[in-house]
Automatic annotation (TrEMBL):
Belongs to the UPF0677 family. It comes from Mycobacterium botniense. This is S-adenosyl-L-methionine-dependent methyltransferase. Its EC number is 2.1.1.-. NCBIfam families: mthyl_TIGR00027. Keywords: Methyltransferase, S-adenosyl-L-methionine, Transferase. One of its GO terms (biological process) is methylation. SUPFAM superfamilies: S-adenosyl-L-methionine-dependent methyltransferases. It comes from the Bacteria. Exhibits S-adenosyl-L-methionine-dependent methyltransferase activity. Gene3D superfamilies: Vaccinia Virus protein VP39 (3.40.50.150). The keyword Glycosyltransferase does not apply.
Amino acid sequence: MPSTDDAARDITEGVGATALGIAAARAAETVSDNPIIHDPFAQVFVDAAGMGMWTVTANPVLSAAFIAREPGLRAMVRALIDFTAVRTAFFDEFFSGAAQSGIRQIVILGAGLDARAWRLPWPDGTTVYELDQPTVLEFKSATLQQQGILPASHQVNVPTDLRADWPTALQEAGFDVSEPTAWSAEGLLHYLPAEAHDRLFQRVHALSSGNSWFAVNAPSKRRGTVAPGSPQTEPADLEHLWYAGDVTDWLHQNGWATSAVTLGDLLARYGRVIPDGDVMPTVFISARRLTAVDRSWVGQAQRPIR
């Protein structure tokens, strides 16, 4: 494994810089007056990466000074932090529910610098597979190991490009296709090329036994917008990008029961208020793959009474 210094030099570019920006927002939320989430490791990553815009976002004093010079950025910074906070809370609650239901195999697609394998209270016997670019996973592991921070689960890195053959890499790392799994694709769809979306869902489906869970966030039908403060301005292929309706339709057609909540409703649930025009059109979807018994019951319930 590379040293922390080597990993820090690599993390500040490309996808690593995006991961640092989101980590900084989690760090800012954690030290706020009324935090929705608690991520004690986000600031560790920000500090290890060295100076950058993420340093300003994570530090309330520096952020206030920066906004004082550029008042127009206040709403953008606040929106980024609130968006990150409620998105993190949604996926944290999803995994907590999956663990309470008895699932002990977790797969985080595009894990970034959220150290869920370390910070969530996983039951004994839980294995958390984290998939992302090698640069991101190496920096995360090296930083936490140097701090003596141990995971709260059996954590397994699967360094891979999610546009490549990640199912093979995942199974070679020990993944058991016969076991129910809780999957997440957090903030991922927008950063994959459009042709990779269908392939992603097909692969998750093929690797999921009955009673597996899946959570994903997707844009709604308003096009051309991204999360406030996101370093990427447009997806590569707006015409074919999967939207929330596409996701839920596909899951229903392939035997998954789904529920969904909009970003606006999620913000309201946590008491965060953002002007309508500043709310990214996002839907958070959670799903469970139905078993043969479930499908039989649904079929019986849907038959007309004669």
